Amino acid sequence: MNGQPYNYSGSNSANGTPTPSSVSYPASLSSQSSREASPARHPPAMSHGPPEISPLALHSNSSYDQQQVRPGGMYDQHSYPIASNMIKPSLKEHSNSDLNPSRMAEMSSSALYPNSQLPVDNQSHPIYSNSDRQSFPRYENLMSPELQAEVNQSIRNSDQTNLQSRLDDTNSHGYTNSSFGLQSKNSEHNNRIVDPDWQANRLPVYGKNSMSNEDLVRATYQDHHNPSNNFHASDVQSPTKASFQQNLQGPGYSPLRQNPSVQQIQAPAPPQVGIKQMEMPPQSGPPRTNALGIIPYNTDPVTKMSQAGGGAVVNQNPLLPTASPLIQQPVKSQPYNPPISAAAPVYGSPQPVPLQKTFPPQQQPYQIQPPQFQAQQQYQPTAYSIGPPPMMQQPQPVGLQGPPLKQYSAEQHVSRPIEPYNTMPSQPQYQNHNQYQQQNNIANHSGYNNKQNYYPGPDDLANTMAGMSVNSGYNKLWGREAIDLLKSRDILPQPKVEPPKIRLAQEYFESANCSPEIFRCTLTKIPETKSLLDKSRLPLGVLIHPFKDLNQLSVIQCSVIVRCRSCRTYINPFVYFVDSKRWKCNLCFRVNDLPEEFQYDPLTKTYGDPSRRPEIKSATIEFIAPSEYMVRPPQPAAYVFVIDVSRIGAEAGYLKVFCDSLLSQLEALPGDSRTSVGFITFDSAVHFYSLAETHSQPHQMVVVDIEDMFVPCPENLLVNLNECLGLVRDLLRELPEKYRESFDTGSALGPALQAAYKLLASTGGRITIFQSCLPNCGPGKLSPREDPSQRSGENVNQTMLNPVTDFYKKLALDCSGQQIAVDLFILNSQFVDLASLSGVSKFSGGCIHHFPLFNAKNQLHVESLQRCLQRYMCRKIGFESVMRLRCTRGLSIHTFHGNFFVRSTDLLSLPNVNPDAGFGMQVSIDENLTDLQNVCFQAALLYTSSKGERRIRVHTLCLPIASNLSDVLHSADQQCIIGLLAKMAVDRCHQYSLGDAREAFVNVVADMLSAYKLTQSNYQSTSLLAPSSLSLLPLYILALLKCTAFRIGQSTRLDDRVFAMCHMKTLPLFQLIQSIYPDLYPVHNISECPQITVGDDSVPSPPTLHLTAEKIDSNGIYLMDDGSNLLIYVGHNINQRLAISMFGAPSFNSINPNMTELPELDNADSRELRNFVNFLHNEKPTAPSLQIIRDDDPKRTLFLEKLIEDKTESGHSYYEFLQRVKLLVK
Amino acid sequence: MAFNFAAFSYIIALIGDAVLIFFSIFHVIAFDELRTDYKNPIDQCNSLNPLVLPEYLLHIGFNILFLLSGQWLSLCLNIPLIAYHINRYRKRPVMSGPGLYDPTNIMNTDVLTQCQREGWAKLAFYLLSFFYYLYGMIHALIST
């Protein structure tokens, strides 16, 4: 798989020599122990997930208890593992609330700084014990003097202290949790970071870290949903909204429906730009606010300076950016904006109000309480029994009694712990959320985790700012921002990751390019030379989903299909018309004649303009092929089912499910009147079923001589479905009865397959195998070779991933030659050696389905099998097909990925093609493309439809050329790259080893970042910049490293791993991405989510969350969608009302964890949730199974193991991963 | 002028080498055909695979003669190739029959390029060694 321009080998060398692997990073890094040993490399554990603990530990109730008895102390605040995110929520709360000083005080604990992402302490009580005098004067800058009622001075001081300390913390933010209880002064804190001492102190802290995670999670969560402000004008929203809709057209999305205007809205500028400018509200309050809001970069240096100084001198400055957001945002939201003076009196009355009385529970969500405090309220009994913690006073809800609060609470609706959306109309909120994130990501990293080693002097500062203001504006305009991965936390674009737009040169600008769902290239601009491609270190290739179900497809029937005479390219939108009679091929540049017929436009029935033809208007088109495209008459649909009825199969009990499914789908099987079916069952013998019309019932014939397989009778085994429908039905009803119990442990899969092959050899068709155990007799028998003790080993022997015998491969090649595809359904409860078996599908263009540990008693298993079968039986099928991929001269196809047999350099033989099969091709650049403007790929799939029509589906993708490195990098399509890398890595596992493939993954990221570094003139050593087009690459790579196929250290059955690898090879990109990085949505407030319109319905679209436990709150409900499963995760603190409205259960404890569908309840929450789930169902070819997982359920590991950004015992957290990569970046 | 065992082994090597040259020419042509879509990879592999072992055995065979006749230099020249052959065969893909080439991955550009390069390299090696064996034969015949 090497020799590709892109050097996938472990080496970082650019020459692309196929070296097995070379470890390009310090070997020490690769092992856990060595990392521990060197403190300097220790990843600051801050942001991405609870750093040192397993997510599983997160939700235990005990953590709450611990929190409360935790001693107060200022350093606690710093030391909690605070996700920078926490700041955002608090900020927003602020904005919602007001300038009310009391609230300020109360919030200070968790508040601050939206943009700079300063750490926030979730512990508020310690504030009182430590008020820092120094900061007081600074406070005055911030607040109007009247606010400073005496009683509250100390509070504010402590606020300030906190502000200050947080500012200081920005630098060290990543280390905060580790410095638990360490520093005595904020300013010292900075220095501590480089001090190895903290390392030493780090470990004992873990337990405490874990406690605060709960808090952290809650706050983070709020951030996501909290409506911050309404600054956007509606026009800001429109592009995003438009794009969203466009994207959500789902499977039916077709290029034909693309609305150019929509594209254009999106295309010119990345959303950030627009939004950012809109963001500054005219009335945004004090000027300093503007300084932050308007010119985000300004704050960066300023903050840095403040951090650097740490002392009193600098203090003045940092406050401005710090405080400003607090003030800025509230301006908008009226109810929370009581005049400051009004609030002041409240301060004057220092009555310590017992919390519970002050706040009716309903108000909770709107207060920025320290999460701990919240927890306390929710757990009233426990909390108090543990002892009234000092922080009881802390929130100082004094102000809350005042009128502003009333107003505020009155406005809210009912109680819910987290109700991000509920204060505002949903759409704007969503928008806010987006905007907020973007702002956070790109513009303003200022405070968050700045490294200590950068202390810019004033000059530096000026320089950076100057550089930034000019360049960044330009770059942003062109979608070229760099994202500092180490500083940006929420890098997932909302609502979903869009494929990059392909921008063609003017003349083809109008031409519809192929839909990204069908055809995608890893680079949306092709480098003009091979050396440029090598420099970019990115893989070049295309992913194609050629037979995707399309809602709209132009089908053309004509006597002559216009093709280039030399390269046989089909005419497409990107050809050049020399004149009205000739066209120039865009692949080989030959000038061809245009047939007379082509001048005629069938729509308008006029002659003359060839560009009106559908072939020219659409990049995806289907021709009905004339007879010269047939080698033989189109074959009828023929299906043979080969079913394992051995003892293990009978125990699994799938036979009944299968027969029932098939019975109900018999008429729906694609085909015409010639459709034929046959059945073969096998244990240690092979059983045939004669279904002759003359018989009154099916006759079974048993062939015991399996060594030399023969077909017992020449006819009636494969019968016409229409003619023998009754008999087939009888058989399907009898089979489950007959094999309800079986004592034959043999499994003669090989002979059964040979027999099926012989049945179908004359026509071609499809063999479907149901296999539940290791084939152990006859030809093709296999032996158990998995060593269970190696399942969680550090490496997987490469030979284990490869077949032990070529029996199945040879059989597949024979089948392929006779146009037979073999589909595998593996329903095993033990090792079946899928590595060997899968060959039979891989090389015959079949598909593989795997149901590990299938048991018919498990309703979930049964349902997922039923759904899968339903899709399998009814979906379109193309017989005797071939696919050819042509590309512009100068490019060539290097390697193919998928299930097929490669018949020649650009021709794939696909005995069957199904709509769920995806393919990947690596492309190499053979010649310079300097004199070209565009490069085209054309995939043509010739197939016989189930109705016996020969058809050709043609997809054409046109891409511009890039001549410089930065263009190439910025045009990269990260999802597509991941799709291709996953396929390449599978090959690598087969060829070399798993470890090698994993290493290559890391090198890919490092290489990419190194390449990007080359394009950056002022690259700071502390940052890890990535182009925005590739910002998710590290995240996805980390996800790949932790997915079933490539993970190590975690117990993974060999079959599961092999199956996951097969999946990597064949899944269409959309599903592949979803399976490695599932979508996580918060759904507890789904009824308030913004709606998008899909078809005629509107569907709520909650934001997607990062896959980390810090986004998971115990009083939230989350939906995770990994393509094949929908997991609804219910936190144990969910509001009772939510439990009732969504699950029809009176409380959390009575939610039935075995529900497989949502109860239909008549309320907004339930309706919207079901609506959303249905939408997710419809988006996918096979409806996913739905599971409700309570967070006290052992099944929760299913959910938690998918939070891949967190540290696990065998895998890095995202942040650690970045740190590791950073060391590799040269 | 004496016809000794060394001369005999060189003569055999000459003949064998000529056969090997034909093998490698066939090899090069076969892969070129694959590249240019003349042949189906399955057919091509079926025709190539049976030739692999004979080629290797032939080569090893006359090297055994060199060994027996004490032609150390000639033997040393061939040892790397023998080692390469053994290694290559040891690492062949899983297959039931003899041979090296797997129709399912032979169309991979890397494999194709590698095989073709191997063909050319061997052709060159066999050609050069042909003249060397000729020289060796004459040398063996005329010495003493």
| Protein structure class of chain A | alpha+beta
Q: Note the total helix count of chain A.
A: 46
Approximately what portion of the residues of chain A adopt beta-strand conformation? 5-15%
Note the gap between the termini of chain A.
Answer: 25 Å
Give the rounded overall mean pLDDT of chain A.
Answer: 68
Helix content of chain A: 25-40%
Succession of helices and strands of chain B: HHHH
Q: What is the average of the pLDDT values of chain B?
A: 91
Brief synopsis:
Chain B: Keywords: Membrane, Transmembrane, Transmembrane helix. The complex is a heterodimer of chains A (1226) and B (144). With 1226 residues, chain A is of the alpha+beta class.
Q: Can you put this structure into words, describing what you see?
A:
Chain A is an alpha+beta fold and 1226 residues long. In chain A, strands 3, 5, 11, 20, 22, 23, 25 and 26 form an eight-stranded mixed beta sheet that branches. The longest helix of chain A has 23 residues, at 150-172. Chain B is mainly α and 144 residues long. The mean pLDDT of chain B is 91. Chain B has one domain. Chain B is built from four helices and no strands. The N and C termini of chain B lie close together (7 Å). The chains are: A alpha+beta (1226), B mainly alpha (144). At the A-B interface, helix 33, strand 21 and strand 22 of A face helix 4 of B.
Main features:
heterodimer, A: 1226 residues, alpha+beta, SH3 type barrels, eight-stranded mixed beta sheet, 33 strands, globular, disordered N terminus, B: 144 residues, mainly alpha, 0% strand, elongated, membrane (chain B), Cornichon_conserved (chain B), transmembrane helix (chain B), transmembrane (chain B)
Itemize the secondary structure elements and their pairings.
The complex is a heterodimer of chains A (1226) and B (144).
Chain A: H1 27-30, H2 32-37, H3 62-69, H4 74-79, H5 87-97, H6 101-108, H7 126-129, H8 136-142, H9 150-172, H10 186-194, H11 196-202, H12 206-225, H13 234-247, H14 260-266, H15 271-279, H16 287-294, H17 296-309, H18 312-328, H19 340-348, H20 355-358, H21 371-378, H22 380-386, H23 403-411, H24 426-443, H25 458-477, E1 482-484, E2 519-521, E3 526-527, H26 530-536, E4 541-544, E5 554-557, E6 576-579, E7 582-584, E8 591-593, E9 600-601, E10 606-607, H27 614-617, E11 620-624, E12 638-644, H28 647-652, H29 654-665, E13 676-682, E14 686-690, E15 699-703, E16 718-720, H30 725-738, H31 749-760, E17 765-771, H32 798-801, H33 807-817, E18 820-826, H34 834-837, H35 839-842, E19 848-850, H36 859-874, E20 878-887, E21 891-897, E22 901-904, E23 907-913, E24 919-925, E25 934-945, E26 950-962, H37 965-970, H38 974-991, H39 994-1015, E27 1025-1027, H40 1033-1041, H41 1054-1066, H42 1069-1076, E28 1079-1082, E29 1091-1094, E30 1097-1100, E31 1117-1121, E32 1125-1130, H43 1136-1143, H44 1164-1179, E33 1185-1190, H45 1196-1200, H46 1214-1224
Chain B: H1 5-35, H2 41-69, H3 72-90, H4 109-142
